[in-house]
Design a protein that fits this description.
Elements: H1 3-10, H2 16-23, H3 27-39, E1 60-68, H4 77-84, E2 89-94, E3 101-107, H5 110-121, E4 127-134, E5 140-141, E6 144-145
Helix pairs in contact: 2-3
């Protein structure tokens, strides 16, 4: 993997001067590489990682398992691309196992997600079945633990 990309994926967002110092490259070389990564769609964007307990998040989030019947010439790709275009779908993955697609979706409330699944998703040609799971609490996001920083990790509390 490219050293600039590895550095970006390893932690905090650094500016190009900081990256050049860490990598032993010129700042211009780092800027050039960042531009190249963006132009060839390797680097798609920058995303902050938020603790949902600390922000006013008015959305309901769900994980949806989707079983598909593959198309003759397109396999799963055309159906997955169509489903990925729905506004409420945040992420869409082709999976192995008991279902074919894994969707991460959001809506204003439980009813809006349920409506999306029953009226829009289930009506897509090739969708055989869905299983929807609503996110209740987040413990870890993108490698960051979100729990109480004063806890002892995996050590259970000892009662007297």
């Amino acid at each position: 993997m490219n050293s600039v990309l590895e550095l970006l994926l390893s932690g905090e967002r650094l500016d190009s001067a900081q990256m050049s110092e860490v990598l032993g490259m010129t700042e211009e070389a780092v800027k050039s590489e960042l531009s190249r990564l963006q132009e060839n769609h390797t680097l798609l964007g920058w995303r902050a990682i938020l603790n949902p307990d600390k922000v006013q998040d008015e959305f309901v989030r769900a994980v949806i398992e989707v079983r598909l019947s593959p198309e003759r010439d397109g396999g799963f790709d055309r159906i997955a691309e169509r489903i990925s275009r729905f506004d409420g779908v945040e992420s869409c993955y082709l999976m192995s196992g008991s279902y074919d697609l894994l969707l991460f979706a959001k809506g204003n409330d439980l009813r809006s997600v349920a409506s999306f699944v029953t009226e829009r998703l289930a009506s897509v040609d090739g969708v055989l079945s869905t299983a929807t799971h609503f996110r209740l609490r987040t413990y870890k996001e993108q490698g960051h633990l979100l729990g109480d920083s004063g806890s002892n990790g995996d050590k259970p509390a000892i009662s007297p």
